[in-house]
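Input record (one chain):
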Amino acid sequence: MNYFSESQLKVLEEAMTILEEAAQYGSNALLLNNPATASSYFMMRLAHREQEVFAVAFLDAKNRLIECRDMFFGTVDSSRIYIREVIRTALLLNARSIIAAHNHPSGDPEPSEQDMKITEDLKKACLLLDIRLLDHIVVGCNRVVSLTKEGLLYGAVA
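The corresponding structure, as predicted from the sequence alone:
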């Protein structure tokens, strides 16, 4: 179900292109250092998608964006995630941290049990290889849920 008109989708695509070009890695790289910024970034990137997309932002030690990839694609209500591919890509890009995100095409961003299991599995794999999982963001139609902000990733946020 698409919540955007064709003209709105075109504007979103153009905005993402501009953002991606401006955020090329280096001194001008996009800084994703808090749940609000990351949520806004992924809202723009994923809210308009009609199928489920699992994306990962790969960050350097200062939480600057190295690259963001749409890694896995699913149907309107599910996608298959391969943790080893996320970790492999993080290692190849020399990422120090990652932020995972996916959309719920239904529009409801509340995390499912499966979302929580994937998050836990990804968190464990990251810990083994000294990669920080900073957040897992679930994007709905006009709202996002940050597991970090909600205290669901590492416990309550102070």
